[in-house]
C-alpha cells in the first residue's frame, strides 16, 4: 500500500515542479532610458494611451532577430505604431544610448539599427552587465528624423530585449542669415523709461519624496527612508528601484 500511495505523490510533485520551471519568468529586464526610448516616453507620460507598457517599460522581451520595436511578440504592439507623435530627441552624428537594467543577465551582443542598416554591434561574450550600460554609436551618415532599433541579445536564452529610440539627427537646425541687412531704425530722441527687471531664476532640483512613476534627471534630489539622494542618471522610477536599491541611479548625500 505504501508503494501505491508514494508513486502518485512523487508523480504529482514532479509535474508541479516541471510546471513551475515552465512558467518561471526570465530574470533579465531592461530598456533605454536616454535618449528616451518609446517605452520610456510612455512610462513618463510623454505619450498617452500606451497600455500596460507604462508599468513595464523594461519588459519588451521576444525571440532574437526581430526588427520591430516590440520584438514581434504579442504584447506592446503600441510601440510599432509610427502614426503616434513619438517625441524625437535632437542628437548629433553619434549618440550615447544609456540602458537601465532592472535585472542582469549574461549577454551575447548589443545591436543597433536604422532600418535595414546595422549601425553597431557590441560583443559582451557572455558577460553579466551591471545595473546600467552605455554605448556610443555613430549614426552612419543618416540625418533627420530616424528610429533607432536596439536589441539586447541574451546569451543563455533564445530571447532579446528591444528598445526603439526616435531621434532627429542634426535636429534643431539654424535660420540662414539674411542676404541683405535689415533696415536700421534711428534711435529715439528721448530714451524710453527704464523698466525694472527681475533677475532670472533657476529651477532647483526636484525635491520631495521619491515616487515610482516619476521621471528623474541628473541633479534631482529626493528623500527616501529619512535620507536624501541625488539622481545620477535619467530614468523613470519603478517599484523596486528605490534609491537605496539602485546605487547606479542614486547616490546618498
Automatic annotation (TrEMBL):
Compositional bias annotation for Pro residues: 175-203
GO terms of biological process kind: carbohydrate metabolic process
SMART domains from the UniProt entry: ChtBD3
Superkingdom of this protein's organism: Bacteria
Every Chitin-binding type-3 domain range: 207-253
Keywords (A to Z) from UniProt: Hydrolase, Signal
Signal peptide: 1-28
Keyword Hydrolase among record annotations: yes
Chain positions covered by the region annotation Disordered: 172-213
Molecular function via GO: carbohydrate binding; hydrolase activity, hydrolyzing O-glycosyl compounds
GO cellular component: extracellular region
Keyword Signal: yes
SUPFAM superfamilies: Carbohydrate binding domain, E set domains
Protein name (Swiss-Prot/TrEMBL): Cellulose-binding protein
Amino acid at each position: 500500500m505504501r508503494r501505491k500511495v508514494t508513486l502518485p505523490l512523487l508523480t504529482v510533485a514532479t509535474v508541479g515542479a516541471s510546471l513551475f520551471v515552465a512558467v518561471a519568468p526570465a530574470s533579465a529586464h531592461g530598456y533605454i532610458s536616454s535618449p528616451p526610448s518609446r517605452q520610456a516616453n510612455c512610462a513618463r507620460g510623454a505619450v498617452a494611451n500606451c497600455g500596460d507598457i507604462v508599468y513595464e517599460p523594461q519588459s519588451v522581451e521576444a525571440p532574437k532577430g526581430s526588427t520591430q520595436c516590440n520584438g514581434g511578440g504579442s504584447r506592446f504592439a503600441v510601440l510599432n505604431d509610427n502614426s503616434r507623435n513619438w517625441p524625437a530627441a535632437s542628437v548629433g552624428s553619434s549618440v550615447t544610448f544609456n540602458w537601465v537594467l532592472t535585472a542582469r543577465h549574461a549577454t551575447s551582443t548589443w545591436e543597433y539599427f536604422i532600418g535595414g542598416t546595422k549601425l553597431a554591434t557590441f560583443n559582451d561574450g557572455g558577460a553579466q552587465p551591471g545595473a546600467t550600460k552605455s554605448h556610443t554609436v555613430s549614426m552612419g551618415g543618416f540625418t533627420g528624423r530616424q528610429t533607432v532599433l536596439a536589441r539586447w541579445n541574451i546569451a543563455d536564452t533564445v530571447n532579446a530585449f528591444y528598445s526603439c529610440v526616435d531621434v532627429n539627427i542634426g535636429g534643431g537646425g539654424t535660420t540662414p542669415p539674411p542676404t541683405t541687412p535689415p533696415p536700421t531704425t534711428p534711435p529715439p530722441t528721448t530714451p524710453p523709461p527704464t523698466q525694472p527687471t527681475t533677475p532670472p531664476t533657476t529651477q532647483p532640483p526636484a525635491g520631495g519624496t521619491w515616487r515610482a512613476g516619476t521621471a528623474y534627471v541628473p541633479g534631482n534630489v529626493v528623500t527616501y527612508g529619512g535620507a536624501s539622494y541625488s539622481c545620477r542618471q535619467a530614468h523613470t522610477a519603478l517599484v523596486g528601484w528605490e534609491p537605496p536599491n539602485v546605487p547606479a541611479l542614486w547616490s546618498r548625500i
